[in-house]
Sequence to fold (310 residues):
Amino acid sequence: HWKRGAECLVEAATHPLADIVVNAVVGAAGLPATLAALRAGKRVALANKETLVMAGEIVTSTAREHGGSLVPVDSEHSAILQCLAGREPHDVRRLILTASGGPFRTWASDRINAATVADALKHPTWQMGSKITIDSATLANKALEVIEAHHLFGVPYDRIEVVVHPQSIIHSFVEFVDGSVLAQLGVPSMELPILYALTWPERVPDTGVPSFDPVGVGALTFESVRHDDFPMLALGIRAGRLGGAAPAVYNAANEQAVALFLDGRLGFAGIPRRVAAAVRDLASLPAGSLETLLAADAAARAHVLAGTED
Fold:
């Protein structure tokens, strides 16, 4: 009896022989499987950031109530997890997530607004799927990661920052209350973050991952985010601060806007305009349950499809 869609994902995520569930489904479609695995008391190695963006409080409370655990696969959150090494949120002064800056880091505003799909898919340091690559070009991906970090590590939004680091060698920093700063470094590869999510809190030897070569890496540089040219970052963080349905609306509106852009039906500058309009109009929708969040998700997609903010 073949199954498909969310039902198939839930069945896989709750398989009795699985101790660890790796969820790398793109978008909101990964949420039911994450919740099902946590209810079954499993470790979820989470590469599906939309799970925590849409329903962070529901997901984290489900993990607590049923003995499941969340271990991040994203390189930035894996870096924070490794730097924290069991420390509590009150030990943390700041989390600093690094961003490559995407393909438009050095572009002028008018050139960014006229960017094509081909332009946006040319990521400078990471090889990823089309949706997440577009999110990296708009910096929406970093907004999703800030919301995710807030839920994963219990750190307030006013103590989470983003810095542009074009080389993508330092994956994130943790600054502790005494002023000490720890960072996790590595070449832009997902091998180690995935491995650590599977072995956490242990480490396994002889993985075949090449040794880190500081001389070969060369200089590391950092820049401030150009918020005026990349409004999706501040918009997403604002949605996270608003809470309720706002993060789910932001995430779903972004998914729909990116799909329109990839289809050639929306310009690059139209992505933040449509998403901002959806958050403005729908942020106050009910958000107390999975059902209401999924309804907010659907409403945000419809809003973007009907929009004229170009």
About this structure: The radius of gyration is 19 Å. The chain has a mean pLDDT of 93.
